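Continuing the batch. This is chain 6 of the set; chains 1 through 5 are on the previous pages. Same settings as before, nothing changed between runs. Recording input and output for traceability.
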Amino acid sequence: MSFIHARIITALVAWTLMIGLPAFVHAEPNEGTHRGGHSKHDRDAHHFIDQTFHSLFRHAKDLGLSEEQVKKLKTLMTDYEKARIRGEADLKLAEVDVQTLAHDEKAEMSAIENAVRKSEMVHANLRIEGIKTLRAA
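Output for chain 6:
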């Protein structure tokens, strides 16, 4: 890969991270939350990651990406999609536990707190996975 192509790729990734990552990382708790615990922010973050990959694929030739690099990016995208699906399923299950305990008058407050913390940890892990994927790209 030539020096200029390496600079273009570096600039594209840096631009993507500078523009998108601050919005992706910033979270407003409970803002826009819909059924299932997913907020508009979460959907926007996933959309941003998908669009970043699609832009890289669309401009792969212009960026001088080799077939091997494109293949690695596709593998990264596939791995992220799988991790996102698993993470969203884990989040939904954790939220079911929170709701079940919250509506159980006999449930200990400590159990409810632990369920909420688990749900938030699952959500944080999902966001971190997206950030790791972008940084790896």
